[in-house]
Design goal:
By secondary structure, the protein is mainly α. The chain is built from 9 helices and 2 strands. It is globular.
């Protein structure tokens, strides 16, 4: 007499599109592992393009697009890229996306293209982009890679937009080109005027604002450099 044992496989439920783990891919780079203030990456563009809000916003959108799409493409190709040429492949993908962004700006926002053309091109060498490809996209599935790239890009974007806000307001007395200081002065009469700070439109002003943001953030989070 023989007995047969039937083994039933229990399938694990699929992970939710925005599970706790996946939410952390987006939320962690905003503060706890911010690429600019914690990892100290992408500092050059944070200092160079942040004199005005409008070009800074365009730069932020461009970086979000490039990081998300490059993470997605490299993740799709991760099992077919030979290890010895992975850096070349990554650079080729990023360069293609950056060229696309540059041409779109040239076609539809020529003034921004003239102002940002050099800095958009430098996205190719941005450590944040290459860092996420190496550290995450090469070893994870496309959807997770998209979330990781989006989180890192958002973390970078809010920092440079915060720097640009204070630099434009204090240095030029405006916000997105709207003269705030002149409007306030007009309320109180001709004898009242707010003076702008010329230091804020220089790279030194960007260092000061960025340093203050890092100080406030690390004070709040308790992060200590080791």
């Amino acid at each position: 007499m023989s007995t047969e044992t039937t083994v039933t496989e229990v399938k694990k439920p699929a992970e939710a599109l925005l599970s706790k783990r996946r939410k952390k891919l987006i939320s962690d780079p905003l503060v706890d592992s911010n690429p600019v203030t914690i990892q100290v990456l992408g500092i050059c563009s944070a200092l160079a393009v942040t004199t005005q809000m409008q070009p800074t916003l365009i730069m932020a959108i461009s970086v979000i697009f490039v990081i998300v799409m490059s993470n997605f493409v490299i993740s799709l190709m991760r099992n077919t890229i030979p290890s010895r040429v992975r850096i070349i492949v990554q650079l080729a993908v990023v360069a293609t996306l950056v060229t696309l962004v540059s041409e779109l700006l040239r076609a539809f926002a020529y003034d921004m293209y003239k102002e940002l053309s050099v800095f958009v091109g430098l996205i190719i060498t941005n450590c944040i982009v290459m860092g996420r490809l190496e550290a995450f996209a090469l070893g994870n599935k496309p959807y997770d890679s998209i979330l990781d790239g989006f989180g890192s890009a958002l973390g970078y974007s809010w920092i440079i937009l915060a720097v640009a806000f204070f630099r434009e307001l204090l240095g030029s007395g405006s916000f997105f080109g709207i003269p705030i200081y002149d409007s306030i002065s007009g309320i109180f009469g001709d004898n009242f005027s707010l003076a702008t700070n010329g230091l804020m439109v220089s790279p030194v002003g960007a260092f000061i604002i960025l340093g203050l943001i890092i100080w406030v953030q690390r004070t709040k989070t308790g992060y200590v450099e080791h």
